[in-house]
Amino acid sequence: MGGRYLVTGGAGYVGSHIVKTLVERGDDVVVLDDLRQGHRAAVPPSAELVVAEIGDRRRLGEVFAAWRFDAVFHFAALSLVGESMRDPLRYCSENLSNSLAVADAAVKAGCLRFVLSSTAALFGFPKSIPIDETAEIAPVSAYGESKLMVERALAWADQVHGLRSAALRYFNAAGADPSGAIGEDHEPETHLIPLAIGAALGTRPPLTVFGTDYPTDDGTCIRDYVHVMDLADAHLRVLDRLEQGSCRFNIGNGTGYSVKQVIDSVERIGGRPVPHSFGPRRAGDPAVLVASSARLREETGWAPRFAALDDIVRTAWAWHAAHPKGFGDRG
Ligand SMILES: NC(=O)c1ccc[n+]([C@@H]2O[C@H](COP(=O)([O-])OP(=O)(O)OC[C@H]3O[C@@H](n4cnc5c(N)ncnc54)[C@H](O)[C@@H]3O)[C@@H](O)[C@H]2O)c1
Ligand SMILES: O=c1ccn([C@@H]2O[C@H](COP(=O)(O)OP(=O)(O)O[C@H]3O[C@H](CO)[C@H](O)[C@H](O)[C@H]3O)[C@@H](O)[C@H]2O)c(=O)[nH]1
Predict the structure, then answer these.
(1) Per-residue pLDDT for 177 more than 90?
(2) For the NAD-dependent epimerase/dehydratase domain, which residue ranges apply (predicted)?
(3) pTM greater than the 0.90 cutoff
């Protein structure tokens, strides 16, 4: 028999890929999303979509009372680094209080397994690469700080209430469901791969490369791009791992690619140029972020199916080329 799961933010980019994976293996899924960024069409018809704000404790209580969940996957959050530096108090307060509202409702309903979307932004400007779970936690954005506060609060919920949680620090989520059914559709879009593809397709303006004077081989920033379906697989494996207690994992491919290498990949896969220019650095961008996911591999047997950048970009290109207006639900 399948499980029954609550997915907050399940109409959004990463969440919708986990929802699809869950329903395809026969689980019952309830998505809680207010659609501020998410899309109704990203939620499969066999999942139940509750359109509500996750900070609404009364509504949360009703949802937990109506279904007995085996676990919660918590994706819904404010997640733009730049915006968090213009409005840090909102990021800290909303991300913390909303997450605690979900965790509190879970504890009250006796649902004691909780998977949190955390972030590489916890590590700020890392002292060494690759970044494993023992690396110093030192966020340099209010967004990163807000996720750290949630991780810390969840540790107390474990100690006092027995709420077992997994904090999954994703590096750069990228790519799309290979079936072509769902993909990334943010507005505003801030992520490199969809912006580069949009520039090549002519659906977005030319790309600006943020900084060419980083201490890297070609002067542009290096990131660790991890496919959303590999993230989905990690979430399922971590559910089983929670039987042994709370845990935290860094999730990436372990290989870094520069902004210029991403542009090259998009040009190779798309077969057309990515119009771009070179601009100044973006504030708060570390030169290099690459994960060590050795712990995740050892403890859960996880291994990425889409380890090569071209394979990740190919699925993203297919989605954007087939859906130039994304889900097509914006006014
Ligand atoms: N995309 C990445 O590269 C990345 C990297 C690290 C961590 N993360 C984390 O993963 C999670 C998902 O990221 P994403 O890129 O899929 O974001 P997204 O914006 O596509 O998805 C978030 C979803 O949550 C919903 N939502 C937000 N606030 C809500 C609220 N208060 N009430 C109800 N629904 C709400 C949005 O409508 C959206 O559908 C976030 O927590 C983010 O911080 C993402
Ligand atoms: O128009 C653009 C957009 C991005 N970049 C560069 O491309 C790289 C990747 O940028 P993204 O915005 O795609 O991703 P980030 O690495 O900034 O952000 C990711 O990692 C963060 C943690 O560091 C957060 O978790 C965030 O949610 C997640 O998307 C960076 O070097 C950035 O400077 C450009 O050159 N031009």
Answers:
(1) yes
(2) 6-252
(3) yes
Q: Determine the average pLDDT of the residues in 123-145.
A: 97
DSSP 262: H
- The two tokens of residue 95 are 């991300």
Q: Quick: pLDDT tens for 66-104.
A: 999 999 999 999 999 999 999 999 999 999 999 999 999
Q: Which helix (H) or strand (E) holds 236?
A: helix 228-241
The residues near 286 (Cβ < 8 Å, ≥ 6 apart) are 123, 124, 125, 126, 140, 221
Give residue-wise pLDDT tens across range 224-251. 999 999 999 999 999 999 999 999 999 9
Pocket residue to mutate for ligand 2, from 192, 207, 220, most atoms within 8 A of Cβ = 192
Domains and CATH numbers, the chain: 4-173+226-251 (3.40.50.720), 192-223+255-322 (3.90.25.10)
Give the distance (Å) from ligand 2 centre to CA of residue 25: 32
Residue type, 159: Q
